[in-house]
Design a protein that fits this description.
The complex is a heterodimer of chains A (114) and B (112). Chain A is mainly beta and 114 residues long. Chain A contains no helices and eleven strands. In chain A, a hairpin with a 6-residue loop joins β5 and β6. The chains are: A mainly beta (114), B mainly beta (112).
Amino acid sequence: EADIYQTPRYLVIGTGKKITLECSQTMGHDKMYWYQQDPGMELHLIHYSYGVNSTEKGDLSSESTVSRIRTEHFPLTLESARPSHTSQYLCASSESTGSTGELFFGEGSRLTVL
Amino acid sequence: GESVGLHLPTLSVQEGDNSIINCAYSNSASDYFIWYKQESGKGPQFIIDIRSNMDKRQGQRVTVLLNKTVKHLSLQIAATQPGDSAVYFCAEIPPNDYKLSFGAGTTVTVRA
């Protein structure tokens, strides 16, 4: 079982609130990712990180921001949430080297903005 | 067994039958492919992977087939069980990259 954790699992908030979704992994992985997924739909990469102090935007444009101050921690922040941000956010990590590109996923954070 | 020739968003399978899930990938130069299983309310979990220098790879009750000529990937599940009910995604890694690009999922429902 993967050692990657997301909190909160579920969050319901009002429009305009600032929220931070937490993601931590204990595997020492350098690469970390945030995907956005609507119910039953495919995953879209919104942010990724090669390592500490590295962050890049993914394929899907997102108003969220991320930071990578520590290897194990990759939080995602929305400064002012809107109903269009309602979705599931999945955090993942992978090894920096190795023969596989396997991603280990957290359980996800399901965000509902009213 | 039950199969689809092209990707379909849903697949209904009788328990005990074999399942075949199809996926078309986009980049002919991609050299690594993974199948993920996502159960309701959970994050995706790795099932099996295959590199572009292989045509077939077998795991426990699962087999992945790669046809590079038509950019097609399939996942075969033998003796499908109720616990196999989930959404299945294929993913590819283009060359000189490490980020996975996910395809549209297939929702598999196992009938008792």
